[in-house]
Amino acid sequence: MLEGKVLNERYEIIKLIGGGGMANVYLGNDTILERQVAIKVLRLEYANDDEFITRFHREAQAATSLSHPNIVNIFDVGEEDQIYYMVMEYVDGMTLKQYIQLHAPIEVEEVIEIMTQITSAISHAHDNGLIHRDIKPQNILIDPYGQIKVTDFGIAIALSATALTQTNSMLGSVHYLSPEQARGGKANRKSDIYSLGIVLFELLTGQLPFSGQSAVSIALKHLQSETPSVKEFNPRVPQSVENIVLKSTAKDPFHRYQEVFEMEAELTHALDPDQLHVAKYEPPDTDDTITKAIPIVKDDDSVKNNPVDEETTIVTNGTKNEEQDKPKEKKKKKRKKTFIWVTSLFVILFGAILLALFVLPSLFQPKDVQVPDVSGLSYEEALQELEDLKLNVLKEEEHDEEVEENHVIETYPRPDDTIKEGKDITVYVSLGPEAVVVDDYVGKNYERIEEILLEEGFNDVKFYEEFSDRPVGEIIAQYQPSPGDEVVPRDTNVIFEISKGPEKITLNRLIGLHVDEATDYLKDRDLSADIKEVHHDEVEKDHVIEQNPSANEEIEKGQVVELTVSKGPEPKEPITHTESFTVPYTGENNEETDEPEPQEISIYVGDMNNKISELYQDVEMITDDKTFTIELTIEPDDEGTYKVIKDDEIIIEKTLTYEDVEGE
């Protein structure tokens, strides 16, 4: 255990506050600057592992090169007794993962504020040639004021990376892993952008986009599955914000943001009025980017492919030479016949052209038709009217909040447009309002659920209040519709039962009651008693002297009521009384020696510690008057007695009661 150890005669380790794969994090105290710090200590089992030590130093070097308000500061790095440590800024807060678990789904405005801080930090790291490679909420801290701190650049890789850094390409967490990292590829700036998109998804929905039974199955989903729609989990997220998720998590890195600052800029303006209703982001069609091979045609090939051209020219020239040798008269007759045939053919062709242009179209071309307005008609009525106009009807069905089921919403082409007979016309037919599946809202805050349901178009949301041990405003029952029902929101009233907190009880006056009577009263009202007994000279034993809360106060069921109960008057303690007396010497001198004859003195005491039948002290012989002192210990309502015998004669016998000595 490292608690209590002082590193470098400066950093006192107080307690363990966290840990990771290769190091533990302790709360520490900088004894020189008198401030709290976080001390990251390499796990002792890796203290002799050169690779881990190298990685630990790499984290320190990477992080110390960064200075940004949203990146945890590194103060010091050192080693003592094979304890490798790094002293960092202490952030009094929690991880972003814990914050999501407590508050998800988080309001969009707060999500934007959090993400702009994170992207600012990562952009700064990229500008300094560092890639984080393990962006996840567990590596992001948030303090009570909403200040973000990105930490754990332990697997950050410099753009000018060495072979050592490249061996760690799969150290990132699989839930936030980019497709290129999942394939085993090297992480780059685009990988950090992908992980930022997953963090943004989790902030908006409170859930991860991909989950599975194993790390492999999750990695495959990053490779193969499109990112789910944020709006399916949280319909209140604007399209502009969802687009940032979709673009940053595009499978193809070329379709993501080129730099993190581009993502930060879009986050900053995502809630601008002109951005709230943008079209959904679709990645470009990758087929258009495929380079197609074009065959190369050589000059020799063109010559080889046209060997007949020159031959043909030669034959033509030969024929022409023969014709020049015919007689001139034969040439004139041939010209006359040719003229007649050509003229006749021209007349026939001209007539055919006129026929094709002006006569045949009117006989065979489809007629023009003006599209009628069939909106609001039943589909059968519209179908009959359009087919009568010799139009080819295509039916498309969709939900509509206004148009009755099986009735026409609109057509395309639109009413009054002119089209030809036989052309397609698409008729959009209503399926009626779209039904939704009702969630189970028990255990959730009523005001928040009411807001969501009204935004979804529910007709009315009502509630009834009941006493409950659940927090005030929490939904404790869902009367209608039941969870799992499919309903049309505009036609549905929702009724909940919500908690108004524990029932209040007006407390009676319990002072003066016997303790059993008071506790029975509390038990009947689901209250508990905390009993304290004290001595009291006036209140009878086992009766209530005081109560807290006091009478007529309103308290909740289950609350504890403090009762002070009398144990009766405080019992009196035995009193030790000191008694002094003088025994006179009454003997005579010895006739022979003229010395006083000794007298025998015996003292007997009867009290709580001594029996009157036994000597109180050894027999003493006196030859002169002597003063004796004894102690009598007398119990309440009792007495103490002592007697003094001189030479078998009782000279003093006295009894003292407790009252006689009380108050001394």
TrEMBL record:
The protein's enzyme class: transferase
Chain residues that bind ATP: K40
Catalysed transformations (reactions): L-threonyl-[protein] + ATP = O-phospho-L-threonyl-[protein] + ADP + H(+); L-seryl-[protein] + ATP = O-phospho-L-seryl-[protein] + ADP + H(+)
GO biological process: cellular response to peptidoglycan; signal transduction; spore germination
Major localization listed first in the record, in broad terms: membrane
Record-linked SMART domains: PASTA (SM00740), S_TKc (SM00220)
PASTA domain span: 365-431, 432-500, 501-567
Entry keyword set: ATP-binding, Coiled coil, Germination, Kinase, Membrane, Nucleotide-binding, Serine/threonine-protein kinase, Signal-anchor, Transferase, Transmembrane, Transmembrane helix
Record keyword Cell wall biogenesis/degradation present: no
Membrane-spanning residues: 338-360
Gene Ontology molecular functions: ATP binding; protein serine/threonine kinase activity
Subcellular location: Spore membrane
E.C. code: 2.7.11.1
Coiled-coil residue spans: 379-406
Record membrane topology: Single-pass type II membrane protein
Pfam name, any one: Pkinase
The Protein kinase domain, residue ranges: 11-272
InterPro entries found in the cross-reference section: Kinase-like_dom_sf, PASTA_dom, Prot_kinase_dom, Protein_kinase_ATP_BS, Ser/Thr_kinase_AS
UniProt cross-references to PANTHER family, sorted A to Z: MITOGEN-ACTIVATED PROTEIN KINASE KINASE KINASE 20-RELATED (PTHR43289), SERINE_THREONINE-PROTEIN KINASE YBDM-RELATED (PTHR43289:SF34)
Listed name of the protein: Serine/threonine-protein kinase PrkC
